[in-house]
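Note to self: keep these together.
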Amino acid sequence: MKKNWLLSVFPGALALMILSLVVALLMVKILWAWTIPDLFPGAVEQGLVVKSISWLTSLKLAILVAVFAGIAGVRKDRG
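Structure:
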């Protein structure tokens, strides 16, 4: 019985994980395009900083932020 329950929950959990990944990547892309040109307008004009980033770069930034959050202990305590 437990095996059937696990097989019925797995697709929903996988879909939720994929959806949260896509939302996180979209947020990183939008926040980059919204803040960086305002913070560094001269650097963007000179080409030192890009105005928008690719999906792969946003994935790398999302992973970096997740690692920093894990190191800082931002996650909830499991107790």
